[in-house]
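[Automated response] Your request has been received and processed.

Submitted sequence:
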Amino acid sequence: MNEPPAPRRPATYAGAGVDIAAGERAVERIKSLVASTARPEVVGGIGGFAGRFVFDAARYANPVLVASTDGVGTKVLVAQAARRFDTIGIDLVAMCVDDIVCVGAEPLFMLDYVVTGKLDAEQMEQLVAGVAEGCRQAGCALLGGEMAEHPGAMAPDEFDLAGFAVGAVDRDRALGPERVVDGDVLVGLASPGLRSNGYTLARHVLVERAGRGLDDPPWAGAHHTLADELLEPSVVYAPAVLAVIEALGVGALHAAAHITGGGIPGNVVRALPGHCGAVIDGTWERPRIFDEIQRLGDVADDEMARVFNLGLGMVLVLDPGAAAEAVEVLAGADCPASVVGRVVAGHHQVVLDAGAST
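Generated structure:
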C-alpha cells in the first residue's frame, strides 16, 4: 500500500526570497538619516505612501520646477567588490543636483531607489547614509525613496542605486545657452576623481588588463588603495554654483555644464548656442589617476576626453569681467576653480588644446 504524500510546507514570501521583516528593520534604521536632511518645507516623515513638500511659490516671481534623474553606473561594482557602501550615495546626489543647478535651480528635494538581490538592513543603512550626507551637502531634503528586493533578478550581494532631484528657479534667472555670447570665459571647477563616469573603461584598464587589486596602491608610491581612489565621492557643486549666482547674478553667470558622460567636449557644447564654440586650454591640474588609466590602457587622447572629466567636474560660462570674482567666490565655497578656456564664434564644437591631455 502506497504511503500518503508528506504534507507540503506552506509557501511564504520570505521562503521565495523576499524578507518583508528585513525591509521594515531597514526603514527603522534609516529614519534618523532621512530626518537629518529635512528642510522647513518638508511635511511629515518617511513611512507614508508619498513624500510631501510645501512649495513656497512666493519666493519666486515666475517659478519653474526643474528635475533630473540619474544613477551611479558601474561605480556600484567597485563598491560591491570593496564592501564599502557609505559614500556612493553622495555620488548619486551629486549626479542629480549638479544637473539641475546647470539651469540655476536650487535643489529642493530628492528621492532615491535602491534595488538588491537580498536585502541587508545594515547595507541599506550605509547606502542611505551616503545619500543623506549628499543631501545635507546640497541643502536639499531626502523626501523619501524605495528599497526593493529582487531575488532571481540579482545576486544576493548585488545592488543598484538611482534617484531623482527636484529644484526651482525663477524663469528670468535661469541659466542657459541663450545667455552665452562670443568672448565669454570658461571657469572649470576642480574634481579630484572620476565622479561617477567612465568606470567601465577604468575597471577594464586597471583591474582586468593591468591586474590591479582594489587593495593595491593606484600607482607606485601612493599611500592609499585603488579602492580609495575609485570610491572618492563626487563633489557636490550645487551650493558653490548657487553662491556664484548670489554674488554675481545671472547677468554675469550665463550657463553651466556638468561634466558627466561625454567628458568635457560633450558636455560644454550643451551649454553653448548653435553659433558658438569653445576652446579649452588645458591649464588645470589633472589628477594622477587619469594618467594611469591612459598609460596602462594606451587610451588615445580623444577617447580620454570624451569618457572622463579629466579633473573638471563643472564648467561655468561667465562674462569675462566676472571670471576673477567667480573664482574667488568658489574658493570661499571650498571649491577650487580656474579659468580654462573661452567661447568663440563659429562651429558648435569644443576644442581641447594639447595641454588638456598632459
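Summary generated for your ticket: Residues 177-357 form a domain with the Phosphoribosyl-aminoimidazole Synthetase; Chain A, domain 2 fold (CATH 3.90.650.10). The chain has a mean pLDDT of 93.
If you did not submit this request, please reply to this message.
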